[in-house]
Specification:
Radius of gyration: 22 Å
Number of domains: 1
CATH superfamily: MFS general substrate transporter like domains
Largest sheet: 2 strands, antiparallel
CATH topology: Growth Hormone, Chain: A
CATH class: Mainly Alpha
Shape: globular
Number of strands: 2
Distance between the termini: 28 Å
Strand order of the largest sheet: 1-2
Strand content: under 5%
Length: about 325
C-alpha cells in the first residue's frame, strides 16, 4: 500500500503547487490583452496560466524514459505474456465475470469517491471567491496549501493505515482503510460549506476533509492489484480509470454546476451544491464498501491460491 500512497503524494503535490502558483499567475496575466501566435491563433490570458503551470511537466515527462520494466510476479498463467491480444481479453472477461461482485463494489465505490473529490477540486477556488469574496490568487494559494500539506500527509497516512490493518490480520485492509477514512468526509464537508462563517473557518473545516479524502486515491490501485493476477492488472486498471474518469471526473464537476444553476438558480449558493454532493456521495460509498468487503476477501483468497498453485507447478 505504501508505494501507491507515495505515488499519490506526487499527484497531490502537483495539484497543490499548481494551485499555489496558478492563482497568482492567473491574477497577473489577467492584466494583459490576448496575443496572436502562428498556428495557434488568439491566446487569451487565462490560457497562458495553463501554459506556464504546465511547463515543468515537459522535463518530468522525459524522466519516464529512465524507468525500466519490472519483473512479472504473481502470474495466473505463465504463458499470458505471449498469448494473442484477443485471447488475453477473453481471459480477462472470464476472470472479471468470476469476481464481478468484488470488482463492481471496488470500482463503484472508488468512482463515487473520485466524483466527490473532483467536484471539490473543480469548485473549491470558486466557492472561496463567491462565498467569502477572495480574489483568485488568495483562493488558489489557500486551497493549494491545503492540498499540498493535508492531501499528501493524508495519502501517506492511508498507506500506513492499510499496512497497519494488514499486519493485524485484515485481509481487506486497503478496502477497510478506505471505508473508515471516508466516514469523516460528510461532516467535514457540512462544516466547510454550511457552517463556516469566514474563509479561514472553511479552510480549517476542509483540512480534515482533504486529509481523509486523499486516502482513497492511493488505496484504489492497491485494492485492485491485490485481487488481480499480474498479467491482468493493466486491463483492470484501465477499466477502472475508464469508469472513474467517465463518471467521476465528468459528472462530479457538472453535478455541482447543475445544482447551482438549475436547482438553486443562484451562483452564490455553490456551497450548498457542494454540501449536497459530499453529504450524499460519501455515505453511499461507505455502504458499498461495507457490502463489498466480504466479496473482496473471497476473491483475494481465490486469486492467491491460484497464483500460488501456478508458481509451485512451474
Amino acid at each position: 500500500a505504501m508505494p501507491m500512497a507515495v505515488f499519490t503524494m506526487g499527484n497531490l503535490t502537483g495539484v497543490g503547487v499548481a494551485m499555489i502558483l496558478g492563482g497568482p499567475i492567473a491574477l497577473y496575466v489577467a492584466q494583459f490583452d490576448a496575443i496572436t501566435l502562428p498556428l495557434f491563433g488568439d491566446i487569451f490570458p487565462w490560457q497562458l496560466t495553463f501554459f506556464f503551470v504546465g511547463l515543468p511537466g515537459i522535463g518530468l515527462a522525459l524522466l519516464v524514459l529512465s524507468l525500466r520494466e519490472p519483473a512479472r510476479r504473481g502470474l495466473l498463467n505463465l504463458e499470458a505474456q505471449s498469448e494473442p491480444a484477443l485471447q488475453s481479453l477473453i481471459r480477462f472477461a472470464q476472470f472479471y465475470r468470476q469476481h464481478w461482485k468484488a470488482f463492481s463494489t471496488l470500482i463503484g465505490s472508488f468512482t463515487l469517491l473520485v466524483l466527490m473529490a473532483y467536484a471539490n477540486f473543480a469548485w473549491m477556488p470558486t466557492f472561496f471567491r463567491r462565498t467569502f469574496g477572495w480574489d483568485i490568487a488568495e483562493a488558489g494559494v489557500n486551497y493549494g496549501m491545503i492540498v499540498l500539506f493535508a492531501g499528501t500527509s493524508g495519502a501517506f497516512f492511508g498507506g500506513w493505515f492499510s499496512n497497519f490493518l494488514a499486519r493485524r490480520g485484515y485481509r481487506d485492509a486497503p478496502f477497510r482503510a478506505t471505508m473508515l477514512c471516508t466516514l469523516p468526509l460528510a461532516p467535514a464537508a457540512f462544516g466547510t460549506f454550511i457552517l463556516a462563517d469566514t474563509g479561514m473557518e472553511a479552510v480549517l473545516w476542509f483540512i480534515p476533509w482533504q486529509f481523509f479524502g486523499s486516502v482513497p486515491a492511493g488505496l484504489a490501485g492497491t485494492a485492485m492489484m491485490t485481487i488481480t493476477p499480474n498479467e491482468m492488472r493493466a486491463k483492470i486498471s484501465s477499466f477502472y480509470l475508464f469508469f472513474s474518469n467517465l463518471i467521476g471526473v465528468t459528472i462530479g464537476a457538472a453535478l455541482v454546476a447543475w445544482l447551482t444553476q438549475e436547482v438553486f438558480a443562484d451562483e452564490m449558493r455553490i456551497g450548498e451544491s457542494l454540501a449536497i454532493v459530499n453529504c450524499l456521495v460519501a455515505p453511499v460509498a461507505v455502504l458499498i464498501i461495507w457490502r463489498g468487503m466480504r466479496y473482496f476477501r473471497n476473491s483475494r483468497d481465490q486469486v492467491e491460491a491460484l497464483t500460488a498453485q501456478t508458481f509451485s507447478s512451474s
